[in-house]
Amino acid sequence: MSERSAAPGGLALVESLVNTLEIDTGADALDTADGRARFGLTEDEAVDARELRESLRAALLAHAGHPPHRSVTPLGELLARAPLVLTVDDGDGSAALAPADGRSLLSRVAAAVAESLVADSWTRLKACEAADCHWAYYDRSPAGRGRWCSMQVCGARAKMRRYRARGAP
Asked: Is 103 helix (H, G, I), strand (E, B) or coil?
C-alpha cells in the first residue's frame, strides 16, 4: 500500500514480512507458494511466520504509540528462541550478530532487529495507525512522528473522517 521506499538494512526483511497481510482484504501472501518462497518458508513453517508477523506488527504499532491490534505472543519471547552467533570480520574487526542458521526466518529477523538497535533505527519502523491497514513503513520524517504508511491514502482518509466528523459543509 505504501509509496515509501523500503526500510534500511535488515529492517527491509521485517517490513516485508509484516506487509504480507493486507488487513482490509484478508489477502495473505504466506498462503501462496510464491509468497512463502520470498522468505524461504515451507507451508508448514507459515504458521510460525504468521505468529512472528503479528508480534512484529504489535511492536511496530507500539513504536507509533498505539496499542496492539490483538493479543499476540510478545515479540521478546519469540526472538529469545532465535539462535544467533557473534561474528567478527578478520579484515576490519567489525562485529555483528548473525543467524546461527541462515535459513531460519526467526533468526534472520532477530539479527535484523539487533542490527537496527545498533543503528538506532528500530523505533523508526512503525505500523500505520489506520485500523484497516497497519502496514509497516519506515518513518523518515525529521521528528519521527509519521502516522500513516501513505499520506495519499491512509492519511487522506483519516483527515477526511475528521473533517466530516466536525460537520463541515
From this structure: coil
